[in-house]
Amino acid sequence: MIELLFWGCVLLLAYTYVGYPVLTCAWAAVQPRPPRRTGNDPTVSVVIVAHNEGSRIRERIENLLALDYPRHRLEVVLASDGSTDGTPEQAVAYQPFGVKVMAFEHRRGKAAVLNEVVPKAGGEIVVLADARQRFEADALRALVGPFADPQVGAVSGELFLANDVDGTPVGEGIQFYWNYEKRIRRYESRVHSTVGATGAIYAIRRTLFEPIPEDTLLDDVLVPIRIARRGFRVVFEPAARAYDRAAVTAGQEFTRKVRTIAGNFQLFAREPWLLNPFHNRLWLQTVSHKGLRLLSPLLLAAALGANLFLLDRPFYRWTLGIQVIFYATALGGYVFRGASKQVPLVSVLYVFCLLNWVTVVAFLRFITGRQGVTWEKASG
Predict the structure, then answer these.
(1) Interval 297-315: pLDDT, tens
(2) pTM of the full structure
(3) Neighbours of 330 (CB within 10 A)
(4) Domains of the chain
């Protein structure tokens, strides 16, 4: 039984991080389903939910107003979620250019604001974005292009992360992880649909939006997955590009990812149909891409623990040695995180272990109810 446990954990981990990407790649190559892209420019509402973004809201609005899209078919909505730093007052200056400002006195969180703002938007397509990122000039046109296909209900753009500090282990590791993640989403999209979207740049048909619980942590997963449940596709469009900075320190990445992963635990707890292959058309993607990753810390711990009980056999001494080297390398990435030069493999293993530790913390915060619904800016 111990040996079976060991190999079960190893195989599940191998499938999660290697097997599933290979499977989706092969599936996409054999049965690609590109969406139809011919059609007129739909009316679009870009919704930005912001809290205390006064230092960058002007730059963000100017970025949106400069996009290559017909101005008479574009609406920009700035929804201030209880800002106290003058964010809505700065945005009001752009009202003559067609920017709509909705200022809410009390902070409630993004989900509550979306429930009020999205149904009132004037566009056929609603683009959801953040104040922090910037869109490429043709991002909006690329993002709404797949909606020419009536089967498409949501479209996710591609987020590019720029590392401000060369050679930091977290920055390099996150770059690798994010490129790996986007490749999987691209394969899923070619097959049928990706699970969730990129919160920095995604769009939905306004008529398909349904109110979500006000304490929802991941609107960019819950909203698209509910749209998919109604029979529509959720596709990934790499030509719709947004730009952001990668986390430089472990503290920044920890802050960002704890909330995200806690949101995944919340998603499975509240939407049990996701685990039912008879009710979820994206069951394989959901379990393989989201579910098994949440189990990774448990699988890693169980594999190590089982290995310790098998040391009377020479082969399992080798497997233990491999695990020791694996974790020692990751530890080295942490110890030498301030070094001017980094070995890519060390950075990747360090971030892999960091994300698994974040998963443990996120689970504890979720089950104890200590993960707040509002975003807090990450600090180094």
Answers:
(1) 999 999 999 999 999 999 9
(2) 0.90
(3) 23
(4) 44-243 (3.90.550.10)
